[in-house]
Amino acid sequence: MTFAPEQSRAAAALSSDQVSYQPLGATVVERTVRDKLREQVSVKDFGAIGDRAAIQAAIDQLPSLGGG
Question: What is the pTM for the complete model shown?
Answer without folding.
Answer: 0.38
